[in-house]
Amino acid sequence: MLRRGVFVCFLLGILVILPMVLLAPQPVLAAADSYVTRYLKVSEPVPLELDAEGHTRLFSAEDLSAGKRLFEQNCLNCHVGGATLPDPTISLSLTALQGATPPRKDINSLVAYLRQPMTYDGSEETFWCRQVPESWMSQTQIEDLAAFVLRAAQKAPGWGIDNLES
Fold first, then answer.
1. Mind telling me which SUPFAM superfamilies this protein's record contains (predicted)?
2. What is the pLDDT of residues 17-30, one digit of tens each?
3. 146, exposed or middle or buried, with CB in 10 Å at 0-12, 13-18, 19+?
4. Among 51, 113, 121, 126, which is most exposed with the fewest C-beta within 10 angstroms?
5. Is the Cα torsion angle 25, 31, 57, 105 positive or negative in sign?
6. 125 DSSP 8-state letter
7. DSSP classification of residue 31
């Protein structure tokens, strides 16, 4: 009788513990977005320019995927496919980013723009693009967002209206 009681307790223990183990939340690993791997051609970390002095930083497919998600959540209403709906003459193409004053062709300059948006000629603040304070996006998040925009400008087919780079 004692053996049977121990066996029943053992089975009940398994029935209680097993579902808890199987249904416990698992850590979610950041996955690379298929757009990033296919169109931005990123499977291994890629170097992107940080500043005008030519310093670079490696951005992984996961970093760029996080940047893409932030872009979709916060920028897509005005910047579909790298276009700029409020001012269609200025896109997010590499040529347009390089032609801005100051140029927005590296991570730090694009982050500076996002933190304090200025008109294309740099003469005054603009309200077409929302200011992104650190209380809204951390430095890492805004750098991932900037990296996505720059890599898309470099590689994505059809990104921006005058993007001819491949």
1. Cytochrome c
2. 545 444 544 444 45
3. buried
4. 121
5. negative
6. B
7. -
Q: State the average pLDDT over residues 151-165.
A: 80
The amino acid at 58: L
Cα-to-chain-centroid distance, residue 164 = 22
Q: Hey, what are 20's tokens? A: 């808890």
- Look at the block and give the residue holding tokens 């700029």: 84
* Rounded distance between C-alpha atoms, residue 51 and residue 86, angstroms: 28
Distance set, CA 37 to CA 50, 74, 120 (Å): 21, 22, 31
- Give the confidence band of 5 by pLDDT, cuts at 50, 70, 90: low
Residue corresponding to tokens 């005058």: 162
Q: Whole-model pTM?
A: 0.79
d(CA 91, CA 160): 5
Cα–Cα distance for residue pair 148/163, rounded to 1 Å: 15
